[in-house]
């Protein structure tokens, strides 16, 4: 992207793994300014020293008033609270986006109190790491990632286009559009359920054995995301509980089915179950 | 390892992913000869052209008679059948090892008919890939892998030492000793269960959606091994069914517990469950 294309004054709210990564990736687009709001003054100082932000502030006062684009990289409930508490600080025409892994709750709540002249275009970069915090941030986490936008009727077309342009400019491969309802349903399967599974497998080890000596790649892969940010994911799971319960129950049925075939030592059925999974998996790169 | 240390005549039985990888890795130790037995003449020809075997044979006749070390890289039941059918072809003092992912069945059966002067030292290199076949073979699959040896009382110390030496020489990081019973119990948790889970998650997708557009790293990691060799893994699951059923049921209990906390939107319990998993996972590299 040509630098002239991104002449915005940007504020990033929350300089953790995701917010820090946004700052690093956006810096390369040479926007007018990238400023940041974070409670942690040390992180703000580090980010300033690294040259990825122009100004840092540990409270959201004047810094918001000049912002054209506000990227909130907080947990869902904090995101809602931040917008509510700063209603008076956004300038007319400002575009707000977020990075939350649940959408119905965030979009409905924020739109319920947001003035018409400020546009909230909700986004979900499907990027992350099992570790949290600014120290883990990297512009590369967006590379080839999926980015979901969940627009609503009140969003202006040019603002939706701006978020898509930004997502592609920071390296995302696919930008897809869903309603908040579709998002929460699909994500309960593609993201929340795998985390539930990884956690349950990891907790299933009740031995004192150093199991690291007896693992191959399969155990490590399936449990990788069990090294989880417990506060964030507890919030995501409960905010999407209905969809997630449905997906867990569908998964439980599958486990019962394969268990039965193993109990009966029914290799024919087992081979069919395994073949079906294998064909589906090979379709995903 | 000094090349003088490995002056053996080796026969590899089955030039698939594992057997082919053994040939490639062992070639670097410059043994006297590496010969191979495989049904597929094309694969034997390719391996010969690549210089990783000296002779290939599609039936197990004379080629076995000179072998000091026979490495069987077949499925468990084929491994047993191969040894049974070739009882007369092994020379006195020969060492046989295998690469099977279940041990009780293989060790008991083979030792029940193997003459005293031939030694079967069972081994399980915890290395692999989700794809099968010689085309996928690589000397690097053993790099930093775990290698489990399940010796029995009839094994000679020097023969056990030989398998350990070989495992380290081809790149394995940890060589650990277990009884066949311990092996099958631990592996049902660290290897068979993760495969059951990956397969069930993959099959749980009943939509026609192109879910690749909505996945992040978690879904891809948890389902990686769902691209499975269905014949081999059906055999492994059924040969280790009792242990595996126990582990599946313990995992099912964990899923029930987290599901309950999500249903109740009980964030405190959820955070505890997630924290416990996170701490355990961070102990495994």
UniProtKB/TrEMBL annotation, chains A, B:
Coiled-coil intervals, chain numbering: none
Record's keyword terms, sorted: Membrane, Oxidoreductase, Transmembrane, Transmembrane helix
Gene3D superfamilies documented for this protein: 6-phosphogluconate dehydrogenase C-terminal like domain, NAD(P)-binding Rossmann-like Domain
Residue stretches spanning the membrane: 6-25
InterPro entries listed in its UniProt record: 6-PGluconate_DH-like_C_sf, NAD(P)-bd_dom_sf, PDH_C, PDH_N, Preph/Arog_dehydrog, Prephen_DH
Domain Prephenate/arogenate dehydrogenase: 8-285
PROSITE patterns xref list: PDH_ADH
SUPFAM superfamilies in the record: 6-phosphogluconate dehydrogenase C-terminal domain-like (SSF48179), NAD(P)-binding Rossmann-fold domains (SSF51735)
Pathway: Amino-acid biosynthesis
Domain of life per record: Bacteria
Family: Belongs to the prephenate/arogenate dehydrogenase family.
Name of the featured protein: Prephenate dehydrogenase
């Amino acid at each position: 992207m040509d630098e002239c294309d991104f002449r915005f004054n940007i504020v990033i709210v929350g300089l953790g793994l995701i917010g820090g990564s946004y700052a690093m990736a956006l810096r390369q687009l040479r926007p007018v300014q990238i400023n940041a709001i974070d409670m942690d003054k040390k992180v703000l100082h580090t980010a300033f020293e690294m040259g990825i932000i122009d100004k840092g502030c540990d409270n959201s006062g004047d810094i918001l008033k000049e912002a054209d684009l506000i990227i909130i990289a907080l947990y869902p409930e904090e995101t809602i609270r931040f917008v509510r508490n700063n209603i008076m600080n956004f300038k007319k025409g400002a575009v707000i986006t977020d990075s939350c892994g649940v959408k119905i709750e965030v979009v409905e709540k924020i739109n319920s109190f947001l003035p018409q002249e400020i546009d909230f275009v909700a986004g979900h970069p499907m990027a992350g790491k099992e570790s949290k915090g600014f120290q883990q941030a990297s512009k590369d986490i967006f590379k080839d990632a999926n980015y979901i936008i969940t627009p609503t009727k009140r969003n202006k077309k040019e603002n939706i286009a701006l978020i898509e342009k930004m997502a592609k400019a920071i390296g995302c491969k696919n930008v897809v559009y869903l309603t908040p309802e579709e998002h929460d349903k699909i994500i309960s399967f593609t993201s929340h359920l795998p985390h539930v599974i990884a956690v349950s497998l990891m907790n299933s080890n009740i031995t004192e054995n150093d199991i690291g000596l007896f693992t191959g790649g399969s155990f490590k892969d399936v449990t990788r995301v069990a090294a989880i940010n417990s506060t964030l994911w507890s919030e995501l799971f409960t905010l999407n509980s209905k969809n997630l319960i449905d997906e867990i129950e569908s998964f439980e049925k599958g486990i019962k089915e394969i268990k039965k075939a193993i109990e009966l030592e029914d290799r024919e059925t087992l081979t069919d179950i395994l073949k079906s999974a294998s064909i589906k998996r090979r379709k995903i790169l």
